[in-house]
């Protein structure tokens, strides 16, 4: 097991004390014992409900924006009559901040298959947990969009259903690149904000972790809404496509899975194996034990 030694100055003097830190062991690839624990199913339920609430609020915000900027509906000032892109970005980022804060202690607050995949690549969760989380997240997204359509069916069908689509004027390579980089920013922030080494050193970090994660979602939406409508969350894109069920949403669906998964994998590799040098530490530990 890798070990870091941090030296901290004691208050009121020049003496120093060493604070030992041990990296937590990687999660097992397959852990069937999880299937026998109520805490595992409770975490899956938390992911389902959190993703449902996330899609319900954010898709309503997107549709409300389109309704308010429709000249046929708003004849006074359609350009200034809605929350705009800034408001949509705040809705997505704000909901992630709220829901991560609420569910972090139960499921880890993933609410996104790309985040779950990145944490799996970084050996933070097992394969079984990763798969079950993704299923729960996708089902929650479908139900969240279904609630929006049930309450506002006409607006939902007439104003795009909140579905992610490549916007006119951009090619698929640009859209894919936007999804890769946007998801990299998000997942890199997740790893940095939840780094156990930082948690051991700074007691305030676990409490503040949802804030940078939500703010990362906010910033990425500002940059990529004009390109793809901003996916960076395969469950968000999949749930909206299932309920909206139009050809364009399905034609671009691959982009909102491939891009986020590539971005998440690169972010996990960068943080774990370059910044934290996990491979080098493991090799050094192996040599020292022999």
Features:
single chain, 290 residues, mainly alpha, Glycerol uptake facilitator protein, two-stranded antiparallel sheet, 13 helices, 2 strands, 5% strand, globular, Aquaporin-like, membrane, transmembrane helix
Task: Walk me through what this model shows.
The chain has 290 residues and is mainly α. It has a two-stranded antiparallel ribbon with strand order 1-2. A hairpin with a 6-residue loop joins strand 1 and strand 2. The longest helix has 31 residues. The chain starts with a strand and ends with a helix. The N terminus is likely disordered. Belongs to the MIP/aquaporin (TC 1.A.8) family. PIP (TC 1.A.8.11) subfamily. One of its GO terms (molecular function) is channel activity. This is Aquaporin PIP2-3.
How large is the share of residues in beta strands? under 5%
- In CATH, the homologous superfamily goes by the name Glycerol uptake facilitator protein
Helix content: 55-70%
Q: Counting H and I runs of at least 4 residues, what is the number of helices? A: 13
Mean pLDDT equals 85
Structural class: mainly alpha
CATH top level class name? Mainly Alpha
The domain count comes to 1
Distance between the termini: 13 Å
| Major sheet size, sense and barrel closure | 2 strands, antiparallel
Shape: globular
Q: Which H/E pattern describes the elements?
A: EEHHHHHHHHHHHHH
Number of strands: 2
CATH topology assignment: Glycerol uptake facilitator protein
Give the strand order, joined by hyphens, for the main sheet: 1-2
- Low-confidence blocks of residues: 1-19
Q: What does the radius of gyration come to?
A: 21 Å
CATH arch. level architecture = Up-down Bundle
Family: Belongs to the MIP/aquaporin (TC 1.A.8) family. PIP (TC 1.A.8.11) subfamily.
Membrane topology: Multi-pass membrane protein
Region (Disordered): 1-20
Protein name: Aquaporin PIP2-3
